[in-house]
Each structure stands twice: as C-alpha cells, then as structure tokens.
Amino acid sequence: MLSKYELLDFKTLGDERGSLIAIEEGYNTPFEIKRVYYIFDTKEGIERGFHAHINLKQIAIAVKGSCTFVLDNGMKKDEMKLTNPNQGLLIEGLIWREMKDFSPDCVLVVIASEHYDEGDYIRDYDRFLEEVENGKN
After folding, report:
1. Which of 97, 41, 55, 50 is nearest to 89 (CA)?
2. What is the pLDDT of residues 40-65, one digit of tens each?
3. Residues paired with 80 in a beta bridge
4. Is the pTM for the entire model greater than 0.90?
C-alpha cells in the first residue's frame, strides 16, 4: 500500500441557522467506514499517538479546537495543524503519527477503514523503520 497523507476539504452547507458537513462513504471518503471515534478532554501538554498502522486508513478532523499531527514516513517528517472542521487529514499506509498541542476545547474525530485490531498497530519506532526499509511502505 502506498503511504500518504493529505488534507481533504469537505463541503460546508449552511444558512442563517448554522453550518453542516456530511461525511459520506463513497462520496467524500476514499474508503469504507467501519469505525468512528473521538478524542477529547486531552490534558495540557499531553501527546498522543506514537504508532503507525499496517493497513488502516484514517481521516482525522478537529471538529472543535485544534491539534497538531507529526507525520513521518520513515524518510521525512511533516507537521500539520488541524484547526478547521471542514478539513480532514487522510492518513494511509505506514505513517508514524504523533499528536500534540491540543487546544483545551479540542474534539478530534477519527473515521477509520477497519474495526479496532491491535495486530494492525506498530508501536515501536525502530520496528516501524524496519518495515519501511523492507519495502512495505
């Protein structure tokens, strides 16, 4: 699987009552949705993530507040700050991810292509680099 990450823009609908964004499988998500979860009440200074996935595809959306993702494909690292509920960060393939700088009001929704499977996680950075070098990236 090709490893990549990119920002997706979601169409915002709305009128004088407010705004709405619909996330629809097969329309504005590039994979079948099998799981949705959200992270909130992250304490100041806490960092999360520190793992990669073998097969899982995800879209992360800061529906409220903000946080920063550190994304590493084994050769380079990028930082992406999520601040807008009409953008989602698509992460596919072997990408090491860390999350930091959560605002006090951050609510981070994650849409996933698979059900939870601990066997899909790589939680050791050295093993992640070995997997990248072995061409699984």
Report:
1. 97
2. 999 999 999 999 999 999 999 999 99
3. 69
4. yes
Nearest-angstrom CA–CA distance, 86 and 22: 10
Q: How many residues does the chain have?
A: 137
Query: Looking at residue 75, which CATH number applies to its domain?
Result: 2.60.120.10
| CA distances to 62, 78, 107 from 31, in Å | 19, 24, 22
> What range defines the domain where residue 45 resides?
4-136
- Our answer to whether residue 51 is catalytic in this structure is yes
Burial class of residue 112, CB neighbours in 10 A (0-12, 13-18, 19+): buried
CA distance 111 to 38: 9
Per-residue burial over 70-79, b = 16 or more CB atoms within 10 Å of its CB, e = otherwise = bbbbbeeeee
- Three-state DSSP at 125 gives helix
In the set 48, 51, 64, 100, the catalytic residue is 51
**Number of domains composing the chain:** 1
